[in-house]
Design a protein that fits this description.
With 304 residues, this protein is of the alpha+beta class. Helix content is 18%, strand content 34%. It folds into two domains: 64 residues, no CATH class; 224 residues, no CATH class.
């Protein structure tokens, strides 16, 4: 690529938004999609293909620009003080069982379950046997609140007496720092009790899994994971922002919310672009965090 990468990317962005007069991209937009094994800078078309996996193309006032997809921002920058093995946040919570084999959808941040390794069901007839028997441990429901100094977490983690969550929680926002926040009501943690997962099962069945599901779901070996633990909640709230002023955002729990009504609301205390999700009060228990291992991995060990 002879010209600056942003020039070629901007030309392609203007083709996507033909009514726009200008395109603006920052160096970090294209630097963030470079891969360690790139022998040189990719062509503009390849840059754009990678960018569209991470960013939305937006237009305002005749200017086209890039904005992080909220599910990517949330997955990349969220930190929490739940079990350290829970490394995969779900922007679109769903009911996910321990033992599920599946992948994270890049479209909406939802986990797609292909089958459960402990009871593959219809997949068994197609050559996928169940895993060796592994017991599941269920942690007691957690109540109360514990606030970390981390920029990305507020959760309910008090093992004492049951009480309602606080009515108002403030999250700091700092200029130049992407923000991703999680706040929940009572949670339930399920995980395998075993220290080591069935490595042989994973290695023996990955090719068969791809043969059965790869084409229909447009996935590769590297996309598929085995779920080893889940954190579930009925009430939850997510917030992400990549562009904001110094300040804060407040989540206010609704006073005596009715079942089926929003659990609460976010109130930004400053101007900025943000995305948020709030559950319906006392809805179904849904998975908000997952611990998992890639099935194609050569070494699979479950963190305690």
């Amino acid at each position: 690529m002879d010209m600056h990468p942003a020039n070629g990317i901007n030309q392609l962005l203007l083709k996507q938004k033909p009514h726009a007069k200008f395109a603006i991209t920052q160096d970090n937009d294209w630097i963030s999609v470079l891969k360690p094994d790139d022998p040189c800078l990719p062509a503009a078309n390849e840059f754009l293909s990678r960018i569209l996996e991470v960013y939305n193309v937006c237009e305002a006032d005749n200017v086209v620009f890039l904005e992080y997809k909220p599910q990517v921002l949330y997955r990349t920058y969220l930190k929490h003080n739940h079990d350290i093995s829970l490394t995969l946040p779900l922007w679109s919570p769903a009911i996910v069982a321990v033992g599920a084999v599946g992948y994270l959808s890049s479209d909406d941040g939802k986990f797609i379950t292909l089958f459960n390794a402990r009871a593959p069901g219809a997949s068994t007839a197609r050559g996928i046997p169940p895993t060796p028997a592994l017991r599941t441990k269920i942690a007691p429901t957690i109540h109360g609140e514990k606030r970390l100094k981390s920029r990305a977490l507020f959760g309910l983690l008090d093992f004492g007496r049951k009480r309602d969550p606080p009515q108002r929680v403030t999250f700091p926002l700092k200029v130049g720092e992407n923000a991703a926040h999680l706040y929940t009501g009572p949670t339930r943690h399920r995980r395998f009790e075993a220290d080591d997962l069935p490595m042989e099962w994973c290695k023996s069945n990955i090719d068969k899994i791809i043969e059965i599901y790869g084409a229909d779901h447009n996935i590769t070996r590297e996309d598929i994971v085995l779920v080893t633990g889940t954190l579930d909640a009925q009430d939850y709230a997510f917030f992400v922002s990549a562009c904001h002023r110094e300040g804060s955002v407040v989540f206010e729990v609704a006073v005596n919310p009715r079942i089926g009504q929003p659990w609460g609301s976010f109130f930004p205390a400053n101007n900025g672009q943000f995305n948020s999700k709030v559950s319906r009060h006392r809805g179904p228990w849904e998975t908000v965090l997952i611990s998992c291992v890639p099935i194609a991995s050569n070494a699979i060990v479950l963190s305690r």
